[in-house]
Design a protein that fits this description.
- The protein is an alpha/beta fold and about 450 residues long.
- The chain has 2 domains: about 250 residues, Rossmann fold; about 130 residues, no CATH class.
- It is built from 12 helices and 10 strands.
- Strands 1-2-4-3-5-6-9-10 form an 8-stranded mixed sheet, with helices on both faces. A two-stranded antiparallel ribbon has the order 7-8.
- α3 packs across α4, α6 runs antiparallel to α7 and α6 packs across α9.
- The longest helix is centred in the middle third of the chain and has 37 residues.
- The termini are far apart.
């Protein structure tokens, strides 16, 4: 029998699939999996800064203008077919699932900009489709996105964020924002910056060399308590204390790199706006203009290193070994797949820096008075009951607020591998729909 030659690209893909979480093999776990008796309208919406984005507006068959509608969005994930929609449509609720301006690519995601996309979705429903009540459903990163929007929309324009992290001005003080009427957080983390603070690998000692490692801070080193997967690891409190402190220090280091790059842009803007710029030599003007428009991209290596992934004595729960994206986080930590792997300086500071971002539910929930529902999935591999869900709930300022948890549900309430029906979704909707009915229908 002759030698079989397998293309290198196929070998790479086969090796990668072995460490990607299997719930992703059959498609996105957040898409609904059953037929719906509904009409669907493809949308091209425009935000206040003229950026366009796409969505799907699902309405119950025969009811094109429901009085209550939901908006479901995420900073980068496609929620146009979110798993909550079928049951909501059966109850007569309109469902707008929309991408932001950055679908499937958050390299340049600036939260102070993408909340304008949420604003456009809410405005569309209220001003053009007759919705009297609009509820924001924030699943995962959609929670911090929606809450930042709502906190800004409910403030007078002059009190909104005028300068984004990094130093560039926003449009938030100049635009008219229509707030939503209710907030639902499902498996919502505090924000992408808070997530990254917990998962960034502090053993990286050189941002330009992904191999440069401080072994004393490597959670995947057996000398620090790591055990061969899928055996659970055990870390000493002293190691964890040093580890968490070093994570903060690495984020500070990257913050400084990003801010230095942003400062060069800000200095160029100031030079272009200064009197006499047009009289400067052409070569100087050219260099300043290039500096003003330079958009650098940073690479952030090794962002899948949360001790919770492999030590189930840390906030014990029904979660299984590994991260949301991989059952081998020790290996995926070195792959491209992960959080904030490529990012512009302004996006790092706005979205991924746990020290700089405004998209943090502990910052925004105290501004929100509308009815709020917080749903926790007990088997979530990224969001934890004590450090995430309960703190978010406690931060909510709404008098009408509710906390629900499902002890064995996963992050996206997805079914078991290879199963089409999801009992967890049905259980969620059995609680979510009455919550909406009591307040908005």
């Amino acid at each position: 029998m002759g030698t079989v030659l397998i293309p290198l690209s196929l070998l790479v893909s086969l090796s990668l699939v072995t460490i990607i979480a299997k719930t992703y093999w059959g498609g996105a776990p957040y898409h609904f999996r059953k037929k719906v008796d509904a009409d669907v309208e493809p949308l091209l919406l425009r935000a206040a800064d003229f950026r366009e984005f796409q969505g799907l507006y699902w309405t119950p068959r025969g009811n094109p203008r429901p009085k209550v509608a939901v908006v479901c969005m995420h900073p980068r994930v496609d929620f146009t077919r979110h798993y909550t929609f079928p049951r909501l449509l059966e109850r007569g609720i309109g469902c707008l699932g929309a991408n932001t301006r950055n679908p499937n690519n958050d390299t340049d995601t600036v939260h102070e900009e993408i909340i304008l996309d949420v604003a456009a979705a809410v405005r569309f429903l209220k001003e053009f489709r007759g919705a009297e009540k609009v509820i924001l459903i924030g699943n995962s990163g959609g929670g911090s996105l929606n809450a930042l929007f709502q906190s800004q929309a409910t403030k007078p324009a002059k009190e909104r964020i005028a300068i984004a992290p990094g130093g560039l001005p926003t449009r938030l003080t100049q635009v008219d924002l229509i707030s939503a009427d209710g907030i639902v957080h499902i498996s919502a983390h505090r924000g992408e910056g808070a997530v990254l603070m917990n998962v960034i690998d502090p053993s990286v000692i050189d941002e330009l060399d992904p191999r440069a490692t401080d072994p004393s801070l490597d959670m995947y080193d057996p000398r620090n308590g790591f055990r061969p997967p899928p055996e659970w690891s055990r870390y000493a409190p002293e190691f964890l204390e040093c580890y968490r402190a070093a994570q903060v220090e690495r984020v500070k280091r990257i913050d400084a790199i990003a801010q230095k790059k942003m400062n060069a842009v800000l200095e160029a803007i100031a030079a272009m706006e200064a009197p006499g710029f047009d009289e400067r030599p052409e070569s100087e003007r050219r260099e300043i203009e290039r500096a003003r428009h330079l958009e650098e991209v940073m690479v952030v290596y090794r962002t899948m290193a949360n001790p919770y992934y492999v030590d189930n004595t840390l906030e014990p729960s029904a979660r299984v070994y590994g991260s949301l994206l991989s059952h081998r986080p020790d290996l995926m930590n070195h792959r491209l797949l992960g959080f904030a792997r490529t990012v512009t300086p302004r996006a790092w500071l706005s979205t991924w820096s746990g020290l700089q971002t405004n998209a943090d539910l502990l910052k925004t929930m105290p501004d929100i008075k509308e009815p709020t529902l917080v749903v926790h999935a007990g088997a979530d591999q990224e969001i934890y009951r004590e450090s995430d869900a309960l703190r978010i709930f406690e931060a909510a300022a709404a008098v009408d607020k509710t906390f629900i948890e499902f002890e064995t549900a996963r992050h996206y309430f997805e079914p078991d591998f290879d199963q089409k029906e999801s009992p967890a979704v049905e259980a969620l909707m059995d609680r979510l729909i009455p919550w909406i009915e009591e307040r908005f229908l």
